Amino acid sequence: MTIITGQEREAVYKTIYSRRDVRSQFIARPIEDDVLMRILTAAHHAPSVGFSQPWDFIVIEDSAVKSEIKQAFDEANQEAADMFEGERKALYQKLKLQGIFEAPINLCITCDRTRNGPVVLGKTHQKDMDIYSTVCAVQNLWLAARAENIGVGWVSIIDLDELKRILKIPEHIVPIAYLCVGYVSEFDEKPELEKMGWLSRDALEPLIHKDTYKNK
Fold first, then answer.
1. What is d(CA 16, CA 27) in angstroms, rounded to the nearest whole number?
2. pTM (2 decimals)?
3. What is the pLDDT of residues 80-105, one digit of tens each?
4. In which order are the strands placed within the sheet that holds 150-154?
5. Alpha carbon of 56 to those of 77, 108, 151, 154, 162: distances in Å?
């Protein structure tokens, strides 16, 4: 059994606590092929229900594809802004919520809900476990990227049907995460939304329950 040393443990926690959703700090430096493969390999080693490994990775560098994605984002972002009112809407419109062109690489991580057939160990009673497994791959990728001093930004403000059309994703495949990936000039000390006053980090203690869920 591999034993984690104290120094290695601290490096893991440092990576977790310093991970950020990056939108504004991307620089033009390309990601080396071997570094990208290390990050994708880390994602591929995520836990998955029934060892099903339902994920695929679409690596996007073509500017024409990025342009279509950016247009789809802009349309969805305007729709989202209109859902807020007053000061909240004004603050929303100040936020930079994507780095599609700034990041040298965009990644779409998908979930194949048909992989390994109609009956998958662990999905028999919780049908969405394949989706949750793919989200684990996203988190693995994000932490591995941070360990490489590479920033990642999740672009969730986009219509999924448009995303599938642009990336020619088959009907039975579900896009889980559209990510902007690249080296950055710096990592913020605090998450950008916290720094901008959108929300603050909740205290942990009220979120911990013992034995049963207790209403607050």
1. 22
2. 0.95
3. 999 999 999 999 999 999 999 999 99
4. 55-60, 105-112, 173-183, 150-154
5. 26, 8, 20, 16, 18
Distance CA 162, CA 146 (A): 29
**DSSP bridge pairs for 151:** 182
Give which of 156, 149, 198 is closest to 26, Cα–Cα: 149
- Span 109-162, pLDDT tens digits: 999 999 999 999 999 999 999 999 999 999 999 999 999 999 999 999 999 999
Q: Strand, helix or coil at 82?
A: coil
The answer to whether 21 touches 152, Cβ cutoff 8 Å, is yes
Burial of 142 (0-12, 13-18, 19+ CB in 10 A): buried
User: In sequence order, what are the beta bridge partners of 175?
Assistant: 110
The enclosing H or E element of 197 equals: none
| Close Cβ partners of 51 (under 8 Å, ≥ 6 residues apart) | 121
User: Tokens in use for 51?
Assistant: 């060892």
- Write the Ramachandran bin of 54: left for phi over 0, alpha for psi from -120 to 50, otherwise beta: alpha
Burial bucket for residue 18 (CB in 10 Å: 0-12, 13-18, 19+): middle
